[in-house]
Amino acid sequence: MGRERTAGSGLEAELAKHRGLEIHGGYIRIVFMWRRIRCRESLGLPVTKANIKHAALLRAAITHEIKTGRFDYGRHFPDSKNATNYSNVKDERLATLVARYKPLKAVDLTPMTEEKYSYALDICTELLGPDRLAGILLPEDIQRLRIQLIADRAPSTANHYLATFAGFLGWCENNSYCRKGLSAACTRFAMTDREPDPLTKTEFEQLLSKGCLHAQDSAAITLAVYTGLRPGELCALAVEDVDLTTGQINITRAITADGTFKVPKTGKSRSVLLMPPAVEACKTLMSLVANCTPRQIEVFTNRHESRIETITPLLSPTTQARKKIINHWFVPTSWNTKWAAIQKRSGIRPRRPYQTRHTYACWLLTARGNLAFIAKQMGHIDFTMLVQVYAKWMEDESAAELDKIWTELNSKKTRP
Protein backbone atom coordinates (compact mmCIF):
# COMPACT_ATOMS: atom_id res chain seq x y z
CA MET A 1 0.00 0.00 0.00
CA GLY A 2 1.34 3.45 -0.94
CA ARG A 3 1.63 6.59 1.11
CA GLU A 4 -1.44 8.68 1.54
CA ARG A 5 -1.28 12.41 0.92
CA THR A 6 -0.57 14.26 4.18
CA ALA A 7 -2.45 17.31 5.36
CA GLY A 8 0.38 19.73 4.70
CA SER A 9 3.47 20.03 2.59
CA GLY A 10 5.56 20.37 5.74
CA LEU A 11 4.51 16.94 6.96
CA GLU A 12 5.10 15.50 3.47
CA ALA A 13 8.64 16.88 3.48
CA GLU A 14 9.29 15.55 6.97
CA LEU A 15 7.96 12.11 6.03
CA ALA A 16 10.10 12.01 2.89
CA LYS A 17 13.24 12.40 5.00
CA HIS A 18 12.78 9.00 6.63
CA ARG A 19 12.92 5.65 4.89
CA GLY A 20 10.38 2.98 5.77
CA LEU A 21 7.60 5.27 6.96
CA GLU A 22 4.17 5.53 5.31
CA ILE A 23 0.65 6.62 6.09
CA HIS A 24 -2.16 4.12 6.40
CA GLY A 25 -5.70 5.05 7.50
CA GLY A 26 -4.49 8.40 8.71
CA TYR A 27 -1.85 6.90 11.01
CA ILE A 28 1.90 6.38 10.73
CA ARG A 29 2.99 2.89 9.70
CA ILE A 30 6.56 1.61 9.70
CA VAL A 31 7.89 -0.89 7.13
CA PHE A 32 10.91 -3.17 7.65
CA MET A 33 12.35 -6.48 6.45
CA TRP A 34 12.65 -9.31 8.93
CA ARG A 35 13.56 -12.89 8.05
CA ARG A 36 13.08 -12.02 4.40
CA ILE A 37 9.50 -10.93 5.09
CA ARG A 38 8.25 -7.39 4.49
CA CYS A 39 6.55 -6.38 7.73
CA ARG A 40 4.18 -3.42 8.07
CA GLU A 41 3.02 -2.28 11.50
CA SER A 42 0.76 0.68 12.29
CA LEU A 43 1.79 2.66 15.34
CA GLY A 44 -1.67 4.16 15.84
CA LEU A 45 -0.11 7.63 15.90
CA PRO A 46 -1.51 10.58 13.96
CA VAL A 47 0.75 12.27 11.44
CA THR A 48 2.70 14.99 13.22
CA LYS A 49 6.34 16.01 13.02
CA ALA A 50 6.99 14.71 16.54
CA ASN A 51 5.34 11.38 15.78
CA ILE A 52 7.23 11.04 12.49
CA LYS A 53 10.55 11.51 14.33
CA HIS A 54 9.44 9.01 16.98
CA ALA A 55 8.51 6.46 14.29
CA ALA A 56 11.86 6.97 12.53
CA LEU A 57 13.78 6.37 15.75
CA LEU A 58 11.70 3.28 16.50
CA ARG A 59 12.34 1.84 13.04
CA ALA A 60 16.06 2.53 13.40
CA ALA A 61 16.10 0.68 16.73
CA ILE A 62 14.21 -2.25 15.21
CA THR A 63 16.55 -2.56 12.21
CA HIS A 64 19.55 -2.45 14.54
CA GLU A 65 18.08 -5.22 16.71
CA ILE A 66 17.41 -7.30 13.58
CA LYS A 67 21.03 -6.94 12.43
CA THR A 68 22.38 -7.92 15.85
CA GLY A 69 19.95 -10.83 16.23
CA ARG A 70 18.13 -9.41 19.26
CA PHE A 71 14.81 -8.42 17.72
CA ASP A 72 11.68 -9.54 19.60
CA TYR A 73 8.57 -8.93 17.54
CA GLY A 74 6.19 -9.44 20.45
CA ARG A 75 7.97 -6.88 22.63
CA HIS A 76 7.58 -4.09 20.09
CA PHE A 77 4.14 -5.09 18.77
CA PRO A 78 2.40 -7.23 21.41
CA ASP A 79 -1.06 -6.78 19.86
CA SER A 80 -0.02 -7.61 16.31
CA LYS A 81 -1.06 -10.93 14.80
CA ASN A 82 2.41 -11.05 13.32
CA ALA A 83 3.85 -11.32 16.82
CA THR A 84 2.52 -14.88 16.84
CA ASN A 85 3.06 -15.68 13.17
CA TYR A 86 6.63 -14.41 12.97
CA SER A 87 7.94 -15.04 16.48
CA ASN A 88 7.68 -18.82 16.43
CA VAL A 89 11.39 -19.18 15.68
CA LYS A 90 14.41 -17.96 17.62
CA ASP A 91 17.23 -15.90 16.15
CA GLU A 92 20.37 -18.03 16.28
CA ARG A 93 23.32 -18.17 13.91
CA LEU A 94 24.06 -21.41 12.03
CA ALA A 95 27.56 -21.82 13.45
CA THR A 96 26.23 -21.47 16.99
CA LEU A 97 23.48 -24.01 16.43
CA VAL A 98 25.81 -26.53 14.76
CA ALA A 99 28.21 -26.28 17.71
CA ARG A 100 25.27 -26.91 20.04
CA TYR A 101 23.94 -29.80 17.97
CA LYS A 102 27.16 -31.78 17.51
CA PRO A 103 27.58 -33.09 21.09
CA LEU A 104 23.85 -33.87 21.28
CA LYS A 105 24.11 -35.99 18.13
CA ALA A 106 27.49 -37.50 19.01
CA VAL A 107 26.08 -39.32 22.02
CA ASP A 108 24.57 -41.90 19.63
CA LEU A 109 27.53 -42.15 17.24
CA THR A 110 30.84 -43.96 17.21
CA PRO A 111 33.90 -41.67 17.20
CA MET A 112 34.59 -42.47 13.53
CA THR A 113 31.02 -41.68 12.49
CA GLU A 114 31.04 -38.56 14.66
CA GLU A 115 34.05 -37.28 12.74
CA LYS A 116 32.29 -37.83 9.40
CA TYR A 117 29.11 -36.12 10.64
CA SER A 118 31.08 -33.18 11.99
CA TYR A 119 32.90 -32.68 8.70
CA ALA A 120 29.65 -32.82 6.70
CA LEU A 121 27.98 -30.29 8.99
CA ASP A 122 30.96 -27.93 8.76
CA ILE A 123 30.97 -28.07 4.95
CA CYS A 124 27.24 -27.29 4.68
CA THR A 125 27.45 -24.51 7.26
CA GLU A 126 30.37 -22.89 5.48
CA LEU A 127 28.55 -22.98 2.14
CA LEU A 128 25.39 -21.45 3.60
CA GLY A 129 27.28 -18.94 5.74
CA PRO A 130 28.12 -19.59 9.41
CA ASP A 131 26.80 -16.17 10.46
CA ARG A 132 23.44 -16.63 8.75
CA LEU A 133 20.43 -16.67 11.05
CA ALA A 134 18.72 -20.04 10.92
CA GLY A 135 15.35 -18.35 11.24
CA ILE A 136 15.66 -16.61 7.86
CA LEU A 137 16.66 -19.68 5.85
CA LEU A 138 14.31 -20.61 3.04
CA PRO A 139 13.94 -23.85 1.04
CA GLU A 140 15.55 -21.85 -1.77
CA ASP A 141 18.76 -21.64 0.29
CA ILE A 142 18.84 -25.40 0.71
CA GLN A 143 18.26 -25.86 -3.02
CA ARG A 144 21.22 -23.58 -3.68
CA LEU A 145 23.26 -25.64 -1.21
CA ARG A 146 22.45 -28.78 -3.22
CA ILE A 147 23.80 -27.10 -6.36
CA GLN A 148 27.04 -26.17 -4.58
CA LEU A 149 27.51 -29.64 -3.13
CA ILE A 150 27.05 -31.53 -6.39
CA ALA A 151 29.25 -29.12 -8.37
CA ASP A 152 32.50 -30.86 -7.41
CA ARG A 153 31.45 -33.92 -5.46
CA ALA A 154 30.20 -37.40 -6.28
CA PRO A 155 26.43 -37.91 -5.78
CA SER A 156 27.11 -40.36 -2.95
CA THR A 157 29.21 -37.76 -1.10
CA ALA A 158 26.69 -34.97 -1.70
CA ASN A 159 23.90 -37.23 -0.47
CA HIS A 160 25.81 -38.00 2.72
CA TYR A 161 26.21 -34.27 3.40
CA LEU A 162 22.53 -33.61 2.65
CA ALA A 163 21.35 -36.46 4.88
CA THR A 164 23.53 -35.25 7.74
CA PHE A 165 22.43 -31.64 7.34
CA ALA A 166 18.77 -32.70 7.09
CA GLY A 167 19.10 -34.28 10.53
CA PHE A 168 20.49 -31.01 11.87
CA LEU A 169 17.69 -28.97 10.27
CA GLY A 170 15.10 -31.36 11.68
CA TRP A 171 16.52 -30.68 15.14
CA CYS A 172 16.37 -26.93 14.45
CA GLU A 173 12.73 -27.21 13.39
CA ASN A 174 11.78 -29.19 16.48
CA ASN A 175 13.41 -26.57 18.70
CA SER A 176 11.93 -23.57 16.83
CA TYR A 177 15.26 -22.30 15.49
CA CYS A 178 14.05 -22.32 11.89
CA ARG A 179 10.86 -22.58 9.91
CA LYS A 180 9.28 -25.93 9.11
CA GLY A 181 10.08 -27.68 5.85
CA LEU A 182 13.80 -26.95 5.53
CA SER A 183 14.89 -30.51 6.28
CA ALA A 184 12.50 -31.79 3.60
CA ALA A 185 14.28 -29.54 1.07
CA CYS A 186 17.47 -31.62 1.48
CA THR A 187 16.44 -33.83 -1.41
CA ARG A 188 18.99 -36.51 -2.27
CA PHE A 189 20.39 -36.88 -5.78
CA ALA A 190 19.36 -39.86 -7.86
CA MET A 191 22.12 -42.42 -8.24
CA THR A 192 22.69 -45.16 -10.75
CA ASP A 193 23.06 -48.46 -8.95
CA ARG A 194 26.57 -49.83 -9.29
CA GLU A 195 26.41 -53.39 -10.46
CA PRO A 196 28.78 -55.87 -8.83
CA ASP A 197 31.97 -56.38 -10.80
CA PRO A 198 33.15 -59.82 -9.67
CA LEU A 199 36.47 -61.39 -10.52
CA THR A 200 36.54 -64.14 -13.09
CA LYS A 201 38.31 -67.38 -12.22
CA THR A 202 41.11 -66.40 -14.63
CA GLU A 203 41.53 -62.97 -13.00
CA PHE A 204 41.56 -64.56 -9.55
CA GLU A 205 44.34 -66.91 -10.63
CA GLN A 206 46.28 -63.96 -12.08
CA LEU A 207 46.02 -62.12 -8.77
CA LEU A 208 47.52 -65.06 -6.94
CA SER A 209 50.20 -66.03 -9.47
CA LYS A 210 51.36 -62.61 -10.72
CA GLY A 211 50.18 -60.07 -8.18
CA CYS A 212 51.01 -61.63 -4.83
CA LEU A 213 54.65 -61.55 -3.73
CA HIS A 214 54.09 -63.07 -0.30
CA ALA A 215 52.21 -66.12 1.00
CA GLN A 216 50.21 -63.89 3.33
CA ASP A 217 48.83 -61.85 0.41
CA SER A 218 47.67 -64.83 -1.63
CA ALA A 219 46.15 -66.48 1.45
CA ALA A 220 44.34 -63.26 2.46
CA ILE A 221 42.86 -62.73 -1.02
CA THR A 222 41.82 -66.38 -1.22
CA LEU A 223 40.12 -66.10 2.16
CA ALA A 224 38.35 -62.89 1.09
CA VAL A 225 37.06 -64.39 -2.16
CA TYR A 226 35.92 -67.67 -0.60
CA THR A 227 34.20 -66.14 2.45
CA GLY A 228 32.74 -62.85 1.21
CA LEU A 229 34.02 -60.93 4.24
CA ARG A 230 33.90 -57.17 4.21
CA PRO A 231 37.39 -55.56 4.16
CA GLY A 232 36.98 -54.30 7.74
CA GLU A 233 35.99 -57.79 8.89
CA LEU A 234 38.89 -59.42 7.04
CA CYS A 235 41.45 -57.06 8.57
CA ALA A 236 40.06 -57.61 12.11
CA LEU A 237 40.28 -61.42 12.02
CA ALA A 238 42.15 -63.21 14.79
CA VAL A 239 43.63 -66.68 15.05
CA GLU A 240 41.14 -67.35 17.84
CA ASP A 241 38.26 -66.81 15.38
CA VAL A 242 39.24 -69.81 13.24
CA ASP A 243 37.91 -73.25 14.08
CA LEU A 244 39.60 -75.73 11.77
CA THR A 245 37.87 -78.67 13.48
CA THR A 246 34.41 -77.57 12.40
CA GLY A 247 35.67 -75.76 9.31
CA GLN A 248 34.28 -72.34 10.13
CA ILE A 249 35.35 -68.84 11.05
CA ASN A 250 33.58 -66.57 13.53
CA ILE A 251 33.05 -62.94 12.55
CA THR A 252 32.69 -60.95 15.77
CA ARG A 253 34.40 -57.63 14.99
CA ALA A 254 35.50 -55.20 12.29
CA ILE A 255 38.15 -52.50 12.24
CA THR A 256 37.70 -48.91 11.04
CA ALA A 257 40.09 -46.67 9.13
CA ASP A 258 41.34 -45.11 12.37
CA GLY A 259 42.10 -48.51 13.93
CA THR A 260 39.02 -48.68 16.18
CA PHE A 261 37.46 -52.10 16.66
CA LYS A 262 33.68 -52.38 16.55
CA VAL A 263 31.00 -55.01 16.03
CA PRO A 264 30.21 -56.03 12.41
CA LYS A 265 28.05 -53.80 10.24
CA THR A 266 24.81 -55.56 11.18
CA GLY A 267 25.67 -55.39 14.88
CA LYS A 268 25.60 -59.18 15.15
CA SER A 269 28.24 -61.87 15.05
CA ARG A 270 28.03 -64.69 12.50
CA SER A 271 29.80 -67.89 11.57
CA VAL A 272 31.00 -68.52 8.02
CA LEU A 273 31.49 -72.09 6.85
CA LEU A 274 34.78 -72.52 4.99
CA MET A 275 35.27 -74.11 1.59
CA PRO A 276 38.52 -76.06 1.11
CA PRO A 277 40.52 -73.13 -0.38
CA ALA A 278 39.50 -70.95 2.58
CA VAL A 279 40.57 -73.66 5.04
CA GLU A 280 44.00 -73.85 3.41
CA ALA A 281 44.26 -70.06 3.43
CA CYS A 282 43.53 -70.00 7.18
CA LYS A 283 46.19 -72.62 7.81
CA THR A 284 48.75 -70.54 5.89
CA LEU A 285 47.88 -67.34 7.74
CA MET A 286 47.94 -69.09 11.11
CA SER A 287 51.39 -70.52 10.43
CA LEU A 288 52.74 -67.09 9.52
CA VAL A 289 51.67 -65.58 12.86
CA ALA A 290 52.41 -68.63 14.97
CA ASN A 291 55.10 -66.76 16.91
CA CYS A 292 53.09 -63.57 17.40
CA THR A 293 52.08 -62.55 20.90
CA PRO A 294 48.34 -62.16 21.61
CA ARG A 295 47.34 -58.55 22.02
CA GLN A 296 44.63 -56.90 24.12
CA ILE A 297 42.12 -54.81 22.18
CA GLU A 298 38.91 -52.94 22.98
CA VAL A 299 35.87 -53.71 20.81
CA PHE A 300 33.13 -51.09 20.92
CA THR A 301 29.59 -52.45 20.82
CA ASN A 302 28.31 -48.86 20.84
CA ARG A 303 29.68 -45.47 21.88
CA HIS A 304 29.26 -46.17 25.58
CA GLU A 305 29.91 -49.92 25.86
CA SER A 306 32.86 -52.07 24.89
CA ARG A 307 34.48 -55.40 25.62
CA ILE A 308 38.12 -56.33 26.10
CA GLU A 309 39.58 -59.20 24.07
CA THR A 310 43.03 -60.78 23.99
CA ILE A 311 43.61 -62.09 20.48
CA THR A 312 46.30 -62.78 17.89
CA PRO A 313 46.03 -60.97 14.53
CA LEU A 314 45.43 -63.42 11.70
CA LEU A 315 46.39 -60.90 9.04
CA SER A 316 49.16 -58.63 10.30
CA PRO A 317 51.47 -56.06 8.64
CA THR A 318 54.26 -57.28 10.94
CA THR A 319 54.52 -60.50 8.92
CA GLN A 320 56.07 -58.65 5.98
CA ALA A 321 57.34 -55.56 7.77
CA ARG A 322 60.87 -54.29 7.39
CA LYS A 323 60.35 -51.52 9.93
CA LYS A 324 60.68 -52.15 13.65
CA ILE A 325 57.70 -49.99 14.58
CA ILE A 326 54.55 -50.91 12.69
CA ASN A 327 50.86 -51.50 13.33
CA HIS A 328 49.84 -55.00 14.29
CA TRP A 329 46.60 -54.80 12.28
CA PHE A 330 45.72 -53.84 8.75
CA VAL A 331 42.97 -51.24 8.49
CA PRO A 332 40.72 -50.90 5.40
CA THR A 333 42.77 -48.01 3.99
CA SER A 334 46.10 -49.84 4.25
CA TRP A 335 44.51 -52.97 2.80
CA ASN A 336 43.22 -50.83 -0.10
CA THR A 337 46.79 -49.76 -0.84
CA LYS A 338 48.07 -53.33 -0.80
CA TRP A 339 45.15 -54.54 -2.92
CA ALA A 340 45.81 -51.83 -5.54
CA ALA A 341 49.48 -52.82 -5.80
CA ILE A 342 48.59 -56.51 -6.17
CA GLN A 343 46.08 -55.74 -8.93
CA LYS A 344 48.58 -53.56 -10.78
CA ARG A 345 51.22 -56.31 -10.78
CA SER A 346 48.69 -58.91 -11.90
CA GLY A 347 47.60 -56.85 -14.91
CA ILE A 348 43.85 -57.25 -14.31
CA ARG A 349 41.30 -54.45 -14.53
CA PRO A 350 41.32 -52.39 -11.28
CA ARG A 351 38.48 -52.93 -8.80
CA ARG A 352 37.70 -51.89 -5.23
CA PRO A 353 38.60 -54.42 -2.52
CA TYR A 354 34.87 -54.80 -1.76
CA GLN A 355 34.53 -56.64 -5.08
CA THR A 356 35.96 -59.77 -3.44
CA ARG A 357 32.71 -59.88 -1.44
CA HIS A 358 30.70 -59.51 -4.64
CA THR A 359 32.83 -62.22 -6.23
CA TYR A 360 31.92 -64.65 -3.45
CA ALA A 361 28.20 -63.94 -3.84
CA CYS A 362 28.23 -64.16 -7.64
CA TRP A 363 30.24 -67.38 -7.71
CA LEU A 364 27.88 -69.05 -5.25
CA LEU A 365 24.80 -67.82 -7.11
CA THR A 366 26.03 -69.00 -10.50
CA ALA A 367 26.69 -72.37 -8.85
CA ARG A 368 22.97 -72.26 -7.90
CA GLY A 369 23.60 -72.11 -4.17
CA ASN A 370 20.70 -71.83 -1.75
CA LEU A 371 19.75 -68.15 -1.33
CA ALA A 372 19.03 -68.41 2.38
CA PHE A 373 22.40 -70.09 2.98
CA ILE A 374 24.32 -67.46 0.97
CA ALA A 375 22.53 -64.61 2.77
CA LYS A 376 23.39 -66.09 6.15
CA GLN A 377 27.02 -66.57 5.18
CA MET A 378 27.26 -62.92 4.12
CA GLY A 379 25.54 -61.59 7.23
CA HIS A 380 22.31 -60.40 5.57
CA ILE A 381 19.04 -60.54 7.51
CA ASP A 382 17.37 -62.36 4.61
CA PHE A 383 17.96 -62.90 0.90
CA THR A 384 16.19 -59.68 -0.17
CA MET A 385 19.53 -57.93 -0.61
CA LEU A 386 20.80 -60.80 -2.78
CA VAL A 387 17.82 -60.52 -5.08
CA GLN A 388 18.19 -56.74 -5.39
CA VAL A 389 21.96 -56.60 -5.89
CA TYR A 390 22.69 -59.83 -7.75
CA ALA A 391 19.55 -60.27 -9.86
CA LYS A 392 21.63 -60.34 -13.06
CA TRP A 393 23.55 -63.40 -11.96
CA MET A 394 20.34 -65.14 -10.97
CA GLU A 395 18.77 -64.34 -14.34
CA ASP A 396 21.82 -65.69 -16.16
CA GLU A 397 21.15 -69.06 -14.57
CA SER A 398 17.35 -69.05 -14.93
CA ALA A 399 17.27 -71.29 -18.01
CA ALA A 400 19.62 -73.83 -16.46
CA GLU A 401 17.63 -73.73 -13.24
CA LEU A 402 14.39 -74.43 -15.14
CA ASP A 403 15.99 -77.43 -16.87
CA LYS A 404 17.14 -78.72 -13.49
CA ILE A 405 13.65 -78.35 -12.01
CA TRP A 406 12.04 -80.03 -15.03
CA THR A 407 14.48 -82.93 -14.78
CA GLU A 408 13.72 -83.36 -11.10
CA LEU A 409 9.97 -83.21 -11.70
CA ASN A 410 10.22 -85.98 -14.25
CA SER A 411 12.52 -88.19 -12.26
CA LYS A 412 11.16 -91.36 -10.66
CA LYS A 413 11.81 -90.04 -7.17
CA THR A 414 9.51 -87.04 -7.57
CA ARG A 415 6.63 -88.71 -9.40
CA PRO A 416 3.45 -88.94 -7.29
Distance between the termini: 89 Å
> Number of helical runs?
18
Largest sheet features: 4 strands, mixed
Task: Give me the secondary-structure category.
Answer: alpha+beta
- Spell out the helices and strands N to C: HEEEHHHHHHHHHHEEEEEHEEHHHHHH
Radius of gyration (CA) equals 33 Å
Which superfamily, in CATH terms, is the homologous superfamily of the largest domain? Answer: Intergrase catalytic core
Tell me the domain tally: 3
The global form is: elongated
pLDDT < 50 stretches: 1-6
CATH architecture type of the largest domain: Orthogonal Bundle
The percentage of residues in β strands lies in 5-15%
Q: Regarding CATH, which class of the largest domain?
A: Mainly Alpha
Question: What is the third-level CATH name, the topology of the largest domain?
Answer: hpI Integrase, Chain A
Give me the side-by-side strand order of the main sheet.
Answer: 6-7-9-10
Total number of beta strands = 10
User: What is the average of the pLDDT values?
Assistant: 87
The percentage helix is 40-55%
Fold topology:
Elements: H1 9-16, E1 21-24, E2 27-34, E3 37-46, H2 49-67, H3 73-76, H4 82-85, H5 94-106, H6 111-128, H7 139-151, H8 155-174, H9 201-211, H10 215-225, H11 231-235, E4 242-243, E5 248-251, E6 254-255, E7 261-262, E8 270-273, H12 276-288, E9 295-300, E10 306-311, H13 332-346, H14 355-366, H15 371-378, H16 384-389, H17 391-396, H18 398-409
Parallel strand pairs: 7-9
Antiparallel strand pairs: 1-2, 2-3, 4-5, 5-8, 6-7, 9-10
Helix pairs in contact: 5-6, 6-8, 9-10, 9-13, 10-12
